[in-house]
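Field log, afternoon session.

UNIT: design team B
ACTIVITY: writing a sequence onto a fixed backbone
BACKBONE:
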């Protein structure tokens, strides 16, 4: 299997862009854990869904499928106000880079993979929702956002 296989190629591209916009954060290719650094981002694949209505003549698999990526950002702070401010900025940065970063968009449009006689290419993408959670534990405030990002691909038999 190639290193650039879906969905890893999506995660690798997102990792690069998150590091560019949030250079002082730890970027992890997994779900975040409470023991992770004070300011961090987690990138993980949550779901793959084929579009059963997209079958094409002579092709075994559906032509269109969707990957759901979860982007988590976390801030831990002993001061509630400071934590809220940092967290709000980080969560907004994630949304803005997904919507507006032209380097990300060019990279997503170029994602492709060939495997076992089929070429899979990125077709379109977007943002689902962003959920927020905050809690205080042992005098430390923890703020977490989870942003849903989806990417749709088309598979073409070669």
């Amino acid at each position: 299997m190639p290193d650039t296989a879906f969905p890893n190629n999506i995660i690798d591209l997102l990792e690069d862009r998150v590091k560019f916009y949030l250079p002082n954060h730890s970027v992890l290719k997994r779900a975040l854990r409470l023991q992770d650094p004070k300011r961090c981002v987690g990138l993980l694949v949550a779901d793959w869904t084929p579009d059963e209505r997209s079958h094409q003549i002579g092709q075994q698999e559906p032509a269109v499928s969707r990957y759901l990526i979860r982007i988590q950002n976390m801030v831990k702070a002993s001061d509630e106000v400071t934590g809220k401010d940092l967290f709000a900025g980080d969560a907004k940065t994630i949304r803005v880079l997904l919507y507006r970063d032209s380097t990300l968009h060019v990279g997503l449009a170029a994602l492709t993979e060939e495997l076992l006689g089929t070429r899979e290419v990125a077709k379109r993408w977007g943002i689902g929702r962003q959920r927020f959670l905050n809690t205080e534990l042992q005098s430390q405030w923890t703020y977490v956002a989870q942003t849903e990002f989806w990417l749709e691909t088309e598979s073409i038999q070669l």
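LOG NOTE: The mean pLDDT is 94.
NEXT ACTIVITY: expression trials, pending approval
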